[in-house]
Design brief:
Neuraminidase, 365 residues, single chain, mainly beta, four-stranded antiparallel β-sheet
């Protein structure tokens, strides 16, 4: 190396050290918060230091459907063994058949979304599809909300939930549409059935490692209305199929049961064209966080539309639903969904242990 070039490199290095604003930002550190050799977690919620994890039965997970991680890192059935003890042929109404999502509200309750179908792509069992509200102060089920066959239809896979007051908004990844739910009365109704905004486009496959993810029948996997978020002020609902694109609609239109279907469909607006995501989280600032499946990355979309990569790491392979806790940290469950046996000719490619990561971002939820 020529002396002049070496001198220039040393000078530039010294300049960056003295002027950190010009240096490349350092990705925040990932901390392993929990791991398991048996359970496959796609959902997490953290309440005042208590860590709750859950995962679908069809992934091949072994252990409770919903668990509380104890001080030694062991998953304890939550709220008890009976709720986690369902077996084929047993009563579906008071036990978890297949948990797809959990959600922590602001009033001290943990909401569990039970699809009601233990097998991927199958119809919900009678009485199986439901929402279960657990009081975190007493560790008891406060109320069970059945989702009848007029809401959780044949082919439905009730996916996730967000809450605004007494109104809940749910996605259906199996039968394209949204479900609007009143937590006070227990009444539920479907909207935007088979609308383009809730339907996975056939020309947007899920691609990981250069390969298209296939359903068990060999066709490209299509996941209809899946992730969703509310704007911090509750004005907008953002949603889309797993592969995008995302749409938005004002919640006042969704909240009005008298709104004709055709008029409601006209209220839908395009919002963001982002790549296939495992899961999302909305911060109080309006920053929208999503996990980019193809890049093993956590990214942020600012309110002005600018997208920034927060962290990219091969360990973040198919991060599912991120969670922002009350101290501003983000939790990232890594279920490696594309590696489960169901999508790989009945042979699991899961890289054990399954891990749950924590990353300090100083966020406000």
């Amino acid at each position: 190396m020529k002396p002049t070039l070496l001198t220039a490199l040393l000078a530039s290095t010294a300049f960056l050290a003295a002027h950190p604003m010009f240096a490349q930002p350092v990705a925040p550190a990932l901390t392993v918060a929990a791991e398991s050799p048996d359970m496959i977690w796609n959902a997490v919620a953290v309440d005042r230091g208590r860590i709750f994890v859950a995962g679908p039965r069809w992934t091949g997970t072994r252990g409770p459907g919903l668990a509380l991680i104890d001080g030694q890192g062991r998953p304890l059935p939550y709220p008890d063994e009976d709720w986690n003890g369902w077996r084929p042929g047993a009563d579906t109404r008071s036990a978890f058949v297949n948990i797809n999502a959990i959600h922590l509200d602001r009033a001290g309750a943990l909401w569990v979304v039970d699809t009601g179908s233990p097998d991927f792509g199958r119809d919900p069992l009678p009485g199986g599809a439901k929402l279960v509200k657990i009081d975190l102060a007493t560790n008891r089920v406060a109320r069970i909300y059945p989702l009848g066959p007029e809401v959780a239809k044949a082919g439905s896979y009730v996916d996730d939930i967000r809450l605004k007051g007494d109104i809940g908004y749910l996605t259906d990844a199996g039968r394209p549409g949204l479900i609007i739910f009143n937590t006070a009365t227990g009444e539920a109704r479907r909207v935007l059935d088979d609308h383009p905004s809730t339907t996975a486009p056939p020309n947007r496959p899920i691609v990981l490692g250069g390969a298209v993810l296939k359903a068990p029948d060999g066709s490209p996997l299509r996941v209809h209305s899946d992730p969703l978020e509310l704007s911090p002020d509750g004005k907008w609902l953002y949603y889309g199929p797993l592969t995008g694109p995302w749409s938005r609609i004002e919640t006042r239109w969704l909240d009005d049961p008298a709104m004709p279907s055709a008029e409601l469909a006209m209220k839908v607006e395009p919002w963001a064209d982002i790549p296939p995501v495992g899961g999302t989280a909305m911060a109080a600032s309006g920053d929208f966080y999503f996990t980019d499946l193809a890049e093993d990355a956590l990214k942020r979309r600012a309110p002005d539309g600018e997208v920034t990569t927060i962290v990219k790491d091969p360990r973040l392979h198919w991060v599912d639903a991120p969670f922002i806790d009350d101290v501003g940290a983000m939790w990232l469950p890594v279920p490696q969904m594309d590696r489960v046996a169901l999508f790989n000719g009945a042979k699991s490619k899961i890289q054990w242990p399954v891990q749950l990561f924590r990353i300090d971002l100083g966020l406000k939820k």
